[in-house]
Amino acid sequence: MRLMAIDISRRNFTKLAGIMVMSPSLLTACASTTKMAQGTLIGGSVRNKGDYEVIVSAENATAMHRLPLPDRGHGIAVSPKTHHAVMFARRPGSYAMVFDYREGQVVKLILAPNNRHFYGHGVYSNDGRWLYATEGERSSSRGIIGVYDVANDYRKIEEFTGFGLGPHEVIVMADDSLVVGVGGVHTNGRQPKNLATMQPSLSYLSPQGELLEQATLGDHHKSIRHLAHDGDTTVLTGQQYRGEAEDYVPLVAIHQRGSVMEELGGEPEQWARFNHYIASIAATETHILATSPRGSCYGIWDKVTRELLEINALPDASGVVVRNGDFHVSSGAGQVIKINPQLDKQRFYSGIQWDNHWSAIT
């Protein structure tokens, strides 16, 4: 059965939500029922113009489940306790879609209120009880972390705020604290309105929403957007540069609480390859990898020395995750690259137009 393209107006979002309540199978009719391997990776993809989906794949990027999305997706949260995952709409997003990645079934479609939007990312708490989502107030871009009760049908129970404008990604550390990449930009849709006064930060929150610490970079035009951690206490940040087009500045930094943010190495001509934007970032015990779809490349740094080791071309370089000590990198051109700790590379062609980010099923 081929699903019709989904109209993303609010009226049809509401209609879509109603259909899901009555018959979730209508939305998952094109989900693969293949059980040949266990799903290991989840990412968004583009099928045709205006036609988007989320894909659960095996490690070699073979699609196991394909679920249509109401609109373009961005980041994916994976529950550490259940088989649930959540695809968040690309900012300014109107939905967060909860689905069962093992069965390929939609569980719930969460719709943003008229005065709010999703920023494209979220994360589950370490015990799987809560879902945290980066959200904003449309009129002001006031940053919000929405807190959803997983066991209570993902009902929103609380909002954390007071850390700045335009939060993009949120991650959870081993001690249950939250880390928020605050872009600092007030936007109307996707149009920035305050570039001269923007105030990005890396903000640490307690599980109760208390602001614990904020770290900043020296250049306020570096909008802190994408985050990762190394499983311990180190946070990695990828930036979008909002300054002069002819300036090529470092776009990846590393941080531990109580210290200053440290930018990774690279010459201006090397940073120029990234075209002012880092999309996804991840770290192993020895290396850091960051992608740039705008630059159609990815870079690898030594985690100890902070030195840039290599920049490799990859058309529309998109997601990166670490699984079993290896990097897995996706591309909008369908390529998938597996990189081991010795930086040896194994390439696959998936035939899938991967979009934005990947998440690993642990």
TrEMBL record:
Pfam families: DUF1513. Gene3D superfamilies: YVTN repeat-like/Quinoprotein amine dehydrogenase. It comes from the Bacteria. InterPro entries: Quino_amine_DH_bsu, UCP028101, WD40/YVTN_repeat-like_dom_sf. This is DUF1513 domain-containing protein. It comes from Vibrio barjaei. The lineage of its organism: Bacteria, Pseudomonadati, Pseudomonadota, Gammaproteobacteria, Vibrionales.
